[in-house]
Amino acid sequence: MKIVATKPKSLTGAKYHYCPGCSHGIIHRLVAEVMDELNIREQTIGICPVGCSVLAYDYFNCDMAEAAHGRAPAIATAIKRLLPDRFVFTYQGDGDLASIGMGEIVHASLRGEKITTIFVNNTLYGMTGGQMAPTTLLGQVTTTSPYGRKAEVEGYPAKMCELLSHNEGAAYICRTAVNSPSNIIKTKKAIKKAFQTQAKGLGFSMVEVLSACPTNWGLSPADAMQWIEEHMIPYYPLGEFKVKGE
Amino acid sequence: MQRVLMKGNEAIAEGAIRAGCKAFFGYPITPSSEIAEYMARKMPAIGGVFVQAESELAAINMVYGGAATGFRVMTASSGPGISLKQEGISFLAEGELPCLIVDICRGGPGLGGIQPSQADYFQATRGGGHGDYYIIVLAPSSAQEMMDFTMLGFELADKHRSPVMLMAEGTLGNLIEPVVLRNPVTEFVDKPWAITGCKGRQPNIVNTLHMPVEELQARNKYLTQKYEAMRAQEVRYEEFLIEDADLILVAYGIMARIAKKVVLTAREIGIKTGLIRPITLWPYPYGVLNKAAQTCKAMVSVEISTTGQMIEDIRLATEGKVPIHYIGEIGRTPNPEEITQQLLVIAEKEGLR
Amino acid sequence: MAEEKQVLFAGFGGQGVISMGQFLTHLAMHTGKEVSCALSYGAEMRGGTANCLVTISDEEISSPLTENPMTAVIMNRPSLDRFEDKVKPRGTLVLNSSMVDRLPRRNDVEVLQMPVNMIADQLGTPRVANMVLLGAFVEKQQLLDIDQALEFLEVVFKGKKESVITKNKEAFLIGVEYARKHWK
């Protein structure tokens, strides 16, 4: 009998607390598979955010730290500077990274910190009940934009890849999605490339992953995948925005 | 014994390096910036890390990350910056991450001024951030103590797995005095909890989240016991001529030295005066003050603050046994002559002249 | 309690007020004394008046601050206005008469005057004006042997260009001479 799929060593196997149809499970697995393939689990330190993935330290089978809201890049900076031969990654949602932690992520990328950020964009604050995030799309209804986000009132959705790719210290910036098998494969490739960028010491690397939140979007898991395709990707185009060293 | 002239702020930085501090994360603010400048010059030479953070928040969270790796790390700031750092200090306390936080105090509230102050007493000794926690607060009173207490601070931080604060007035940060350079620390405690990559062991997790009620309760109970142990082991203070004193001054930091001169002058005038100097502002020497209140006739809190902050701890300590007076102002360090004048008025009021 | 000798240096930022204080502090430390030098700092220093207070004692220093120093070295007029009344009775006021255009009102203090900037200009090095005054001050107060002081200058200026050290020594000696001639 041939084993075609197994649990990555870099996951603990603890049961996820995520809602049905949530993309975090897929993205965790992709990160873990990359850690396995690069054989870096024992040299890796991960930082989790505040948000739905706050408990990620229970799922990743490597050294982990839990950060205050938005501060993961600052914590990762210190760890990487003190332990430069380790792999350091942050795993952050859109409220964490693009709102309260905007300062930390911008400056970590400006400094060219040799860390990898996995940025999960599902257009809202999931854990606190579906409030508007900087990434909420125009017209999108959330509990704090109940009449739909309006540009003249709430401003425009944050395009983090576009923003950070302008920073000289950013070495690899890529946006992917996990709404289809082919996009999932591309996401894994991007995550691997980000870790390899870190290994080469080229600078800051980030993969933004467009992700589904069926619960707060009020959609079935299948419809949520469709919503990513129809609403998110047109505003948040997929692809590599910055590739240093190629 | 070789002595070197150093500014208080430089003595802190040099003391930190001698204590084995491997990283400094900070943000410039008067009157503490010389610490960062010293570290920026020295850290590269010793293979250490210096990062000028984008904000006080980032700086304290870098301390969180740095401390989590097990290295001795620190930051330094002044009142407005320490206010911003409080989020991180709360997390450091709960995460049990040893580190040194230096507060070279300036006047507040708000931007206040850059002149010396002791009005950060509340935010230093009362936790400052959210949640049930305390941190050890050391108050040096000379350039030598700036170095010595910095080294002690790192030691206590490791001993109790807790952030430690060193709090000094801007005056002291800028005071130049001879300093005996201490020998570098060569032995450090093991930190098996540190996150360094899990080679050959189970993964470590540095975390401050405890969602199940029972877990949160147990965690807080554990921390409370730790604070009790600190109270039992770490109270530090200095007494000066209190045995026969009718009037006892209570002062810390630079004010303790000024008060010492006041004590001597007052005694020349014929008022039996003494001084209690808390060295740890938390844990506070409640017992020492309580005992002294049984024999003296009145106490005076002398602070660089207009409202008075430490005076509340004196009241707590003395349980209403004696009247408590206050001498203080903000914006400058009062001179011994002025305090003596005010003390004479108090002595008169208390019938001690 | 051992006597704590306190000297205040005051003037404009840039007049070398702080260096004078630091020099005296170094000097005291190297002669085995306890010493403390309190600096005004921050925005106070930029463009405004600068001052520093040096306390010297044979024993541990209690207060590094005082309202009433025994001696004040005054480099400009605003400093005289601010500190004249603070000096202890029977204390000493040392004045840079090039920059102070009035006489002190006090008659219970010793007043020593010196046209510091004029002398330094004659030397062709206005930047060492403070050293001229310091030389005179050290001589007058008999703080230490002049040869020792010159040796000590080498220590304080260690790492500086030889010409800088020479200039400062020269200025210091002119101050010493001035004190011997005019401050007897």
Per CATH, which architecture of the largest domain in chain B? 3-Layer(aba) Sandwich
Shape of chain A: globular
Fraction in helix of chain A:
25-40%
The major pleated sheet of chain B works out as: 7 strands, mixed
CATH topology of chain A: Rossmann fold
Verbal overview:
The complex is a heterotrimer of chains A (246), B (353) and C (184). Chain A has 246 residues and is an alpha/beta fold. Chain A has one domain (24-243): Thiamin diphosphate (ThDP)-binding fold, Pyr/PP domains (Rossmann fold). Chain A is built from 9 helices and 9 strands. In chain A, strand 7 (170-177), helix 7 (181-199) and strand 8 form a beta-alpha-beta unit. The termini of chain A are far apart. Chain B has 353 residues and is an alpha/beta fold. Chain B folds into 2 domains: 3-234, 3-Layer(aba) Sandwich (Rossmann fold); 238-349, Rossmann fold (3-Layer(aba) Sandwich). Chain B is 41% helix and 21% strand. In chain B, the strands form 3 sheets. A 7-stranded mixed sheet of chain B has the order 3-2-4-5-7-6-13, with helices on both faces. In chain B, strand 4, helix 4 and strand 5 form a beta-alpha-beta unit. In chain B, helix 1 (8-18) runs parallel beside helix 6 (143-160), helix 3 packs parallel to helix 4 and helix 10 (286-293) packs across helix 11 (311-318). The termini of chain B are far apart. The mean pLDDT of chain B is 96. Chain C is of the alpha/beta class. Chain C has a single domain, classed as Pyruvate-ferredoxin oxidoreductase, PFOR, domain III (Pyruvate-ferredoxin Oxidoreductase, domain 3), CATH 3.40.920.10. Chain C has 6 helices and 6 strands. In chain C, helix 2 (77-83) links the parallel strand 4 (71-74) and strand 5. In chain C, helix 3 (116-123) packs across helix 4, helix 4 (129-141) packs across helix 6 (162-182) and helix 5 packs antiparallel against helix 6 (162-182). Chain C is globular. The mean pLDDT of chain C is 88. Chains in contact: A-B, B-C. Chain A binds chain B through residues 41-45, 47, 54-55, 57, 60-68, 71, 74-79, 81-83, 86, 103-104, 106-107, 111, and chain B through 22-23, 25, 49, 51, 53-55, 57-59, 61-66, 68-69, 71, 73, 87-88, 91, 195-200, 203-209. Strand 8 (175-180) of chain B pairs antiparallel with strand 2 (34-39) of chain C.
